[in-house]
Specification:
Elements lengths: L5 H4 L2 H28 L9 H4 L2 H26 L3 H31 L8 H34 L3 H33 L3
Helix pairs in contact: 2-6, 2-7, 4-5, 4-7, 5-6, 6-7
């Protein structure tokens, strides 16, 4: 089995590639926000965000996701200190909080569809489902990454390479939290305060 050499681990290429990916995600979300801004008032006679959004539920989801950002940072700190059990514990909590957030998002989508307000109902709902759903998809991918990272730590232990990869995972997770703060503000808060 070929192990990566220390030169390969220290190579700037994987780090650069990660940042290129993250910037491409930034462009993706910027375009989705722009699309939402254009279509948010196109309800086609259907309900608006003010009529649909359950703000206590959304606030709970926001608190859960922001808390998961803290637990992700603590997982990385534990990894840097060489604490394998702490790393796995904090990663596990982050995964659990991500799953709880995703459950609330899916429950919201299911409720809207069950009431006859699916993505095809209006331009507003198409933009809403696309933007929020894309964020949810990224949360799902982050959770898969977390599982794989946890298995890697469990099987191979902690080293510089693992800490680097965990740092990228945590950066990705923080990025998703920042995107959610914009979604919470632009979609939900501004949506319920429409005239």
């Amino acid at each position: 089995m070929n192990r990566p050499t220390s030169q390969a681990i220290n190579s700037p290429v994987p780090v650069f590639a990660f940042w290129v990916y993250l910037m491409s995600d930034l462009v993706l979300f910027a375009s989705l926000f722009a699309t939402y801004a254009v279509l948010k008032d196109n309800t086609f006679g259907g309900p608006s965000g003010a009529q649909l959004f359950n703000m206590p539920l959304i606030l709970l989801a926001t608190i859960i996701l922001l808390t998961s950002s803290l637990s992700a940072a603590l997982a990385l700190q534990a990894a840097r200190l060489g604490n394998q059990a702490g790393t796995l514990g904090w990663l596990g909590l982050t995964f659990f909080l991500g799953a709880a957030f995703l459950y609330l998002e899916i429950a919201e989508f299911s409720k809207f569809v069950g009431e006859g307000h699916g993505w095809q109902t209006s331009g507003f709902l198409t933009a809403f489902f696309t933007l929020v759903g894309t964020h949810g998809l990224h949360i799902s991918l982050g959770m898969i990454w977390m599982l794989l990272s946890g298995v890697h730590v469990l099987m191979r232990g902690l080293n510089r390479h693992t800490a680097l990869r965990l740092g990228q995972l945590v950066t990705f997770w923080h990025f998703l939290d920042v995107v959610w703060i914009f979604i919470f503000t632009i979609v939900y808060l501004m949506g319920v305060n429409q005239l």
